[in-house]
UniProtKB/TrEMBL annotation:
InterPro entries: Methyltransf_11 (IPR013216), Methyltransf_Superfamily (IPR050508), SAM-dependent_MTases_sf (IPR029063). Keywords: Methyltransferase, Transferase. GO terms for molecular function: S-adenosylmethionine-dependent methyltransferase activity. PANTHER family: METHYLTRANSFERASE, METHYLTRANSFERASE DOMAIN-CONTAINING PROTEIN. Residues 63-153 form the Methyltransferase type domain. This is Class I SAM-dependent methyltransferase. One of its GO terms (biological process) is methylation.
Amino acid sequence: MNRKEYWNKEYTTYWKAMTEEANSEGAISRIKKTTSGDYKTPGEKIIIEFFESLHYEKTDKLLDYGCGFGRFYPFFNRITDYYGIDISQAMIDECISRYPEDAEKFIVAEGERLPFEDNYFNKIICYGVFDACYQENAISEMLRVSKVGGSILVTGKNTEYYDDDEQALIAEEAARKKGHPNYFTNVKSLVSQLGQYAYLKQERYFTYRGDFANAKYTDLMPDKFYEWALVIEKKNHLDIHFEKFSDAYSNTWKKKIIKVQNRIIDGEDTK
Ligand SMILES: C[S@@+](CC[C@H](N)C(=O)[O-])C[C@H]1O[C@@H](n2cnc3c(N)ncnc32)[C@H](O)[C@@H]1O
């Protein structure tokens, strides 16, 4: 399945149900779901508290990068000049039917090829989307369309999580089975490369899967962690280039597979 086909009406219905559940139920019922491969996502209260840590002006041009069905539109539209892009026609149709008064602000576009000029946005919010993107191109585009002094908030999953994080391993395998576009970030490499183009303003590292949903994080990068969120501020408008820092497989999963393979080989050797 090509990636555009994945983000269809069925996914839109699924994502609406997951976010509604995250807002209405406690973490425990969702933990049960993750064992069957379902996604565990934080409730909006936690996410919006994080968004509120940035300072907004009503004149700020804000890009909701991968806006989904527009669930953050009501929050941002009150305080900024809002634009939403998404790769999914089904998601954008849903945004337009919910908010017809701002139909022209919702655009079908790939995050790696944004239909905006350089230095356009004061704020870019990329929440729950970066792990589905071709990340080196995605972050380059975000930096290109951001103004110097503009802020970019981005979340993702790290290549190196704890090997006892069962929920993370289950989610990684389930995503692969479903054909979910799913990439992990070598965050150390990303942060070190970002230094040329941006200041690091906020760091949040969520050690285990589920910590984001419980707002449990550290702001010092640990050796291993599952999810991450950064706020960066563009410091200059240079030609942007990133060496590869993303991978379709986490290192944790790769090591687990190698261990299993070694056990099989050892088993055969001793027969
Ligand atoms: C998990 S949903 C999150 C949506 C929204 N940010 C939210 O939190 O409700 C991921 C969204 O990213 C969009 N998406 C995936 N890959 C994308 C890409 N390369 N460019 C733009 N949007 C993309 C999907 O269509 C989907 O709407």
